[in-house]
Structures are given as structure tokens and as C-alpha cells.
From TrEMBL:
<dbReference type="GO" id="GO:0036440">
    <property type="term" value="F:citrate synthase activity"/>
</dbReference>
<dbReference type="InterPro" id="IPR024176">
    <property type="entry name" value="Citrate_synthase_bac-typ"/>
</dbReference>
<dbReference type="GO" id="GO:0005829">
    <property type="term" value="C:cytosol"/>
</dbReference>
<dbReference type="Pfam" id="PF00285">
    <property type="entry name" value="Citrate_synt"/>
</dbReference>
<dbReference type="InterPro" id="IPR011278">
    <property type="entry name" value="2-MeCitrate/Citrate_synth_II"/>
</dbReference>
<protein>
    <recommendedName>
        <fullName>Citrate synthase</fullName>
    </recommendedName>
</protein>
<dbReference type="GO" id="GO:0006099">
    <property type="term" value="P:tricarboxylic acid cycle"/>
</dbReference>
<comment type="pathway">
    <text>Carbohydrate metabolism; tricarboxylic acid cycle.</text>
</comment>
<dbReference type="InterPro" id="IPR002020">
    <property type="entry name" value="Citrate_synthase"/>
</dbReference>
<feature type="active site">
    <location>
        <position position="270"/>
    </location>
</feature>
<dbReference type="InterPro" id="IPR016142">
    <property type="entry name" value="Citrate_synth-like_lrg_a-sub"/>
</dbReference>
<dbReference type="InterPro" id="IPR019810">
    <property type="entry name" value="Citrate_synthase_AS"/>
</dbReference>
<dbReference type="InterPro" id="IPR016143">
    <property type="entry name" value="Citrate_synth-like_sm_a-sub"/>
</dbReference>
<keyword id="KW-0816">Tricarboxylic acid cycle</keyword>
<feature type="active site">
    <location>
        <position position="321"/>
    </location>
</feature>
<dbReference type="GO" id="GO:0005975">
    <property type="term" value="P:carbohydrate metabolic process"/>
</dbReference>
<keyword id="KW-0808">Transferase</keyword>
Amino acid sequence: MTENSTVQIQKGLAGVVADMTAISKVNPETNSLLYRGYPVQELAATQPFEAVAYLLWNGELPSAEQLAELRAEERRHRALADNVRAAIDLLPLSAHPMDEVRTAVSVIGASDVSGAGSVLDAAGSPEENLARSVRLYAALPAIVAYGQRRRRGEQLVEPRDDLDYAANFLWMTFGEEADEVVVDAFNRSMTLYAEHSFNASTFTARVITSTLSDLYSAVVGAIGALKGPLHGGANEAVMHIFDEIGEADKVVAWLDEALAEKRKIMGFGHRVYKRGDSRVPTMKAALDTLVEHYDRPDVAALYDALEGEFVSRKGIYPNLDYPSGPAYNLIGFDTLTFTPLFIASRVTGWTAHVMEQTASNALIRPLSAYNGVDERHIDGYVPDA
Ligand code: ACO
């Protein structure tokens, strides 16, 4: 907190409670994260991602029939739409995939006829927004998968109706059916990334929604916020660090240099959790299953060495991006695809917040304290009489 004459400024809004939410509860004291009351670890261990999405949107886990309905709707919107593909193809291969996905969501938004017309209709009804949320969540895997394939010079893979969300996502990315253990680890990561109260991207979505703008604009803005390495971009950045270090034996020397240069070590630290991120043990367990599945003890050794060394030196603990980065790498995703995977998951939380914000809206418009030059005047200016 800094003082500015008579006002107190909460830099970065740290510690500020901006509103209520019934979607998730983060408790750094007990190191717990609840989605609609359920511990995220329990959801990750027992639920398909589709059920978690349903829970975030509707407040309750789906019945078998409701889950089947959501799955059917998701399958209806899984294929990459021609206009979205055409828009992606216009982008240079050097475009960052986050920009590619942001553009694709923009195209989907602009093509949604239910949002056409006056800005006065932009916010949409609760029913329209739920339908838009489902369609976006359904469309994102194809966008992310196609992006990676395009960069690799590979052809689009059409979705498979016999596969559920996580398995189909991996199918569309790699063009082969993933082993069950891989699908399970990936599904868990999707659940862990889905929601986290008023993080920067979700708050961005709520700010945009508070002006009565549309859901797609809120998601496009949220993607922009997520891209930064202090937020979602950290899972990509973690992998760059792993690549830079190379092997466990080199951790100490690498860290000496990085800390001497005052570098931030990506994948560590959190604004809310100061004693460890509640999601890390579950994601680390998923990473361990992948390490075993792919027989890559070297990855676990590097992970443990960097964590042990950094925590003992700085007392700053890993966040979710630390285990998810190497996990996505083992599954075969390109490093640049990691943060788009975060979008595919977090879109469920963002859209739940869009609907919650809309339901009890107040324009989000904080104040600022001025610290510029004192009032001054244009030489020779004579005010009108
Ligand atoms: N590496 C090195 N030092 C760190 C790190 C880190 N990863 N994280 C915090 N610190 C240090 C800061 O340098 C600062 O030190 P100082 O007081 O000597 O200046 C102190 O710890 C406090 O850090 P802040 O950045 O001020 O704390 P804040 O609460 O704003 O930061 C943040 C949270 C931005 C996540 C920070 O820990 C960070 O930059 N981490 C790396 C990026 C990252 O992993 N982001 C992912 C977030 S989780 C998610 O999006 C899923």
C-alpha cells in the first residue's frame, strides 16, 4: 500500500475485495480451492471436464441426462468452422497462438447472429449467454489443435464423435488416440485450470461485462490478460526455463545466475497463495503418472531439483503452471500451445463469471489518485467571454 496525500492506494488491487462470487472460493490459509463448494482435487479425481464445466455454469454437477445433453451439444460444435479456419489461415505462422485463438474467438463472436443488432442487446439473456458459453467451450479445442498442427505443417484432423472432450481434444491435436493415462492426466489439468476467482483474466472479463458488452468481447479481453507471463503465459515460460537448464545437475549454476540477474523464476509465486498453490499436488501427481508412462525420470529429476533449490533459497512455492508445463510437454504439445490450453479450460470459468456479473451488475470503475503536473495553461489562451 502506498500513500498519496490523503488516499491509500492498493497497488495492483492487492488485498482488495472487489465483489462477491459464488463460483469458487480460494482459501490460502487452508490451501483449498472449491468450485461451487467442491474441492478441486475431488473434481479432478472423479469428474470428466464436461461435468466440471456444467458445474461452473449451473452451480450443480449434472445428472447423467444433463451430462449427456451437454456432451451432445459439445459434439455439435466441435468441428472447426470454415470462417474461423479461414481467419486463422490468414495469420502468419509466426503469430503467437494466443493471438491466433484471440482472433478466432473474435471471429466466432462477430459471426454469432444472436448478438447482432444494437449494442443495447449485446449483453444477451442468461439463456443466450449459457448457449454461447457452451458453443465457445466446444469450439476451442479444434482452434487450439489446428493451430499447433498448422505450425507443424500438418493437416486439420476432424473431430471424433465416439470420444469425449479430453480424448477428442488429444485426437484432434495429434491425429491418434491417446492412452487412457494420458487422457486422464490431461482431463485433470483442464479441471485444475478452469476457475480461480478474481484472477487477472477473469477480472478483465468481468470489467468488460460490467459495461454491458457481450460475452465474446469479455473472453477476447480475458485472453489478452491471460497471455502475459505473470499470469497464464507462465506455463509456456516454465518450459523455456526447463529447456534452458537442460538437466537436474545444472540447476544450481543456472539458478545462481538467474537470481544474480534478478530474473523471475516462472511457475513460482502467487498473489494469493503464499504457502503453496492448492492445485499443485494434484497436477504434480498427474505429471508423475506421465513421467512413468513416458519413462522420463529426467523430467522429474529436473522438476524436483529446481523446486527444491528455489524453495529453499527464496521460500516461494510452485504454482499450477510449474507442473503443467512439463506435463503438456510430455504429452507432446508444443511449448507455444500451452497457454492456449489454459484458455480452452478457463473459458468455462470466465463465462461463468460473465453470467454472474451480468446477473447482478454494477459498472466496474475504480478511482485513481493523480500524481501528474499541477494545473497549467496554454500561453496566450483567452477563454471565451
Ligand atoms: N521468482 C523470483 N522472485 C519472485 C517470484 C518468482 N517467481 N515471485 C515472487 N518473487 C519475489 C519478487 O521479486 C518480490 O521480491 P521483492 O519483494 O524482493 O521485490 C516478492 O517475491 C513479491 O513478489 P511480487 O511479484 O511483488 O508478488 P505478487 O503477489 O505481485 O506476484 C506473481 C505474484 C506475479 C505470480 C509472482 O509470483 C510472479 O511473477 N511469478 C512468476 C510468474 C508466474 O509463475 N505466474 C503464474 C501465476 S499462477 C497462474 O496464472 C496459474
